[in-house]
Specification:
By secondary structure, the protein is an alpha/beta fold. The protein is built from 25 helices and 24 strands. The protein has a 9-stranded mixed beta sheet with strand order 14-11-10-15-9-16-17-8-18, with helices on both faces. A 6-stranded parallel beta sheet has the order 19-24-23-20-22-21, with helices on both faces. It is globular. Bound molecules: adenosine-5'-diphosphate and magnesium ion. Magnesium ion binds next to α10. Adenosine-5'-diphosphate (ADP) binds next to α10.
Amino acid sequence: MNLDTAVQYLMGVGPVMAKKLQTLGITTIGDLLYYFPFRYQDFSEIRPISHIKIGQNNCLAGTIKAIQTSRSWQKKVAVTEALVSDQTGSIRAVWFNQPFLSKNLQIGDFVCLAGLVKLGKKDIFLSSPIYEKMSSENELTSLGRLVPVYNETPGITSRFLRNLIKPLLDQTKSQLKEFLPAQVSQANNFLPLGQALQQIHFPETLALAEQAKQQFVFEELFLVELSVLQARLKLAQQKAPAIVLNAELMKKFTNSLSFTLTDAQRKCAWQILKDMEKPCPMSRLLEGDVGSGKTVVAIMAALNSVKAGWQVALMAPTEILAKQHFYQAAILLRSFKVRIALLTGKEDQIISQKLGWQTKDGWRPETIEISRNKILERCKKGDIDLLIGTHTLIQDKVKFNKLGLVVVDEQHRFGIAQRAKLCQASKSGQLLLPHLLSMTATPIPRTLALTIFGDLDLSLIDEMPKGRKEIITKVIAPSERKQAYQFIRQQVKGDNRVFVICPRVEGQTPPQLGAGSDPTRWNEAKAGKVEYEKLSQEVFPELKVGMLHGKMKPKEKEKIMRDFKLGKIEVLVATTVIEVGVDIPKATVMMVEGAERFGLAQLHQLRGRVGRADQQSYCFLFTESASSQTRQRISAIIKAKNGFELAEKDLAIRGPGSLIGKKQWGLPDLVMANLTNLALVEKTRETAKQILRQSPSLKNYPILAFKVKIFEKQLHLE
Ligand code: ADP
Ligand code: MG
């Protein structure tokens, strides 16, 4: 038997139980050892029977003097009674409906019992205590100590897990390999691994349990950091095109804008452009609140690359956004002769700078549609400078001639493998990886950024363009709904646009409910279609109401967004498809139904869809939930004006899963639970750096290197 042995072969497990254990993520003996309790029950104090306390939970030890099961007078319930004695006295124990007890427990057995002591009509008694037989050979597992409580699943109780794990702790001791470098264990006063496992499952004291737990948190964070930092070292050894900053060109570009860049935009653009001058691949995260103007910064980097002779790929998370970037890029670059193409799922368009025309709404790019194959062909030849699209851009068919920069909007993660894939076509024999600029408006708190984006450099746009007014955020009580609708009518009359966000569209599967939301309320959620019909027919028959949801075809979506921009639609009922990035400067009201269903960061993103020009804008939140968590969260969104503040709060209220999605990353539970602990994250990071300085490939620490490899397989960081 070793740590990789399947649990199925353990005594008392078998195929059926093994399946159940699997639902808890346990398949091997090693998994079992690392399945940690989430709390402990304190049964450590065994009281003499003469000292038991009425009305409290008591744990005592004694010999069974008598035991019998009888039917109660109604003949329905089996009542088992036992008399238990120690040197100080005797007490009656009573169980209901557990007739098998009188088979398990027999006169003369020495047992430990724990349960509530009640005062009955004739005496005091122990009510339905849990029990464990005691013998001189076996230490107690479930009583007479701090007892571990595990997350359970039907058929798998904590008691079952305890009995499984306890003997393994001894049996596997010789096979446990210390993988933390000795200097790290010493510096942190860590217990030997075997002892740490012993203390986290069956601790002597709560303090030791906590110490062991901290040790395992460190261990797992340490592996995350090592893997992230190693990726960074690997990248630094790769080559990338050194793209010289063309100051004159950048000046010409900024002068062509209808606004002045903020200092923060300037600073970030500088950092990015300087970074790309180096001959190794840039990996940079451009982080900025919604509406802070990230696109224009990315376009500067793109323009500088294109004019130095390199192609640029820009990836957006959805087709709507890809299209929006396409138009935005076309407008921003209209006088710079950049050949831009859009590659989406089905339709493809290519645009050249000569085809624009001026309308009273501003410059509109004309697009000519050409076949997908033609775009691919031109891109391969290098006849397209800037290719914009969704994840279709990293499909095998897309080849570039000279790719210099990849810009990823709101995709969070893009690794070496994907980069290498994009530049397969480079001819020079040597693989030149493109630079990477990743953009996000999800304000990732520092601890998270350090852990997950530890291999990226950070540029922060921490300032909003001038003239933006603070968005007025309000919770609207049901009685004020009519007034809110009236307000919306006035806004529309003033040539403004209104978003109405509903949490669900008919027939669609519900998104993951937040920890605090109550799934039974789901049915009450405003289905988008119902809301659309209500608004268009009953509430605003005089207004142009439109609807947008994720299931529509890209063409339909695009038409609706265009109509909304032009005013052919005035009130747009939408699901969260519009959540990230959509830019409609005339939108001044964001109305969110079922606000309790959204995360804070998400609400903030939604709110960021308005107030994108200099008009006063409003965010109205409707909620059906009166829970304290909802109130806490809604009040956070009203108070906090900045995404970072909110993200920290979301992290505190709902945990890291709400921000980054647990499944998406595959981070271990212990790590997730400790991501808010900045000091610990920094400490593990520093330690990881030290170790990698001594041994960049971890050659001196073979067991650790192996462990990191295994660990990486579980993470989906790329
Ligand atoms: P985000 O950072 O959310 O992606 P965008 O790049 O879409 O934001 O910019 C939001 C809006 O602000 C756009 O309409 C853009 O043209 C405008 N904008 C960008 N920078 C500035 C600036 N410095 N001053 C005024 N408006 C700006
Ligand atoms: Mg954006």
